[in-house]
Specification:
With 293 residues, the chain is α/β, with parallel strands linked by helices. The protein has a single domain, classed as Rossmann fold (3-Layer(aba) Sandwich). It has eight helices and ten strands. The chain has helices at residues 47-55, 94-105, 111-124, 140-153, 170-186, 198-204, 233-236, 240-267; strands at 5-14, 21-31, 36-41, 62-67, 70-71, 79-82, 158-162, 190-195, 207-211, 223-224. The strands form two sheets. It has a six-stranded mixed β-sheet, sandwiched between helices. Strands 2-1-4-5 form a four-stranded antiparallel β-sheet, with helices on one face. A hairpin with a 2-residue loop joins strand 4 (62-67) and strand 5 (70-71). Helix 3 packs across helix 4. The longest helix has 28 residues, at 240-267. It is globular. The termini are far apart. Bound molecules: adenosine-5'-triphosphate (ATP). Adenosine-5'-triphosphate binds at residues 14-15, 21, 23, 43-49, 214. InterPro entries: AAA+_ATPase (IPR003593), ABC_transporter-like_ATP-bd (IPR003439), ABC_transporter-like_CS (IPR017871), ABC_transporter_ATP-bind (IPR050166), NO3_transporter_ATP-bd-like (IPR005890), P-loop_NTPase (IPR027417). This is ABC transporter ATP-binding protein. Residues 5-238 form the ABC transporter domain.
């Protein structure tokens, strides 16, 4: 069987000359239709870069990313992305944020069907009561749910999730984890989840693949997650196999993390430089350098 998605010998760097950083090196991954794969890794190791190359927002320097055997040339409705930062349009209601995406993917759908379709996904993430609200009137968890509903309403073949739940409180996070898995299994989607949370990976995925720390981050050995579905967190928490697996993955991550630190400690001596911020006084209120989207 041909894999739905194939990443072959992919490498990606940023910058050039002496400031060149080799972020990802020789990434190989093959994902079958209907699979749920979680990639866990350290912050800054290149997880977002990897997901961007699958979604078609960025391209490899070396190697290829194939979908159904064809190289990915850009973003497409076959891949739905759920980002970490919601990315909703602030001037549109919940309904209209989702409608905008649905209009784009299903231009021929009748108004009535479209309305039904949009409302179905809003109900699925339990936001029917907030359908006419603006993003500014919603909590972070609710915004993230809109973003989940929007990605699902586009009915993509592959669901790409870039730490979609990391900004949420534990309770909301747990609910959304369950909702995403439920929809994935009902709608027979293929899912790739990027996360820094091993427990999240164990709860949701069929396989966990670690991304080693950068630079030159690469995918490590895979860990199969064989717990029956539906998985109930409180139940698998008590399973000795859960503890064993969790420790095995964490041990692996710590080991590659520690090795990497040793290597980089020897290699680079970082100069002790304080950044100069464009503020009036060094001790005054810091100016906000980047605005949140
Ligand atoms: N456009 C860019 N130009 C230069 N360097 C970049 C660019 N984008 C990312 N990087 C660098 O590449 C590395 C990997 O970034 P990336 O965002 O893919 O990592 P990540 O694992 O998703 O990080 P995090 O977990 O913090 O979100 C980082 O060191 C980052 O500083």
């Amino acid at each position: 069987m041909m894999a739905l998605l194939e990443i072959k010998n992919v490498s990606k760097s940023y910058g050039s000359g002496s400031s060149k950083v080799d972020v990802l090196t020789d990434i190989n991954l093959s994902v079958n239709e209907g699979e749920f794969v979680a990639i866990v890794g350290f912050s800054g190791s290149g997880k977002t870069t990897l997901i961007n190359m699958i979604s078609g927002l960025q391209f490899p320097d070396k190697g290829v990313v194939l979908l159904h055997g064809n190289p990915i040339t850009g973003p497409g409705p076959d891949r739905g992305v759920i980002f970490q930062n919601y990315s909703l349009l602030p001037w549109l209601t919940v309904y209209k944020n989702i409608k905008l995406a649905v209009d784009e993917v299903f231009p021929k759908m009748t108004r009535k069907d479209k309305d039904k379709h949009i409302k179905k996904y809003i109900a699925m993430v339990n936001l029917s009561h907030a359908i006419e609200k603006m993003p500014s009137e919603l909590s972070g968890g609710m915004r993230q749910r809109v973003s989940v509903a929007r990605a699902l309403a586009m009915d993509p073949e592959v669901l790409l999730m870039d730490e979609p739940l990391s900004a949420l409180d534990a309770l909301t996070r747990g609910t959304l984890q369950e909702e995403i898995v439920k929809i994935w299994s009902q709608d027979k989607k293929t899912a790739i989840l990027i996360t820094n949370d091993v427990d999240e990976g164990i709860l949701m995925a069929d396989r966990i693949i670690p991304l080693t720390p950068g630079p030159n981050a690469t995918l490590g050995p895979e860990f199969k997650i064989n717990f029956e579905r539906p998985r109930i967190l409180t139940e698998i928490n008590r399973d000795p196999e859960y503890k064993r697996l969790r420790n095995e993955i964490l041990d692996y991550l710590m080991e590659v993390g520690a090795t990497r630190r040793q290597v980089s400690d020897q290699k680079y001596l970082l100069p002790n430089i304080q950044p100069t911020l464009p503020s009036k006084s060094l001790f005054g209120k810091r100016k906000k350098l980047v605005s949140n989207s």
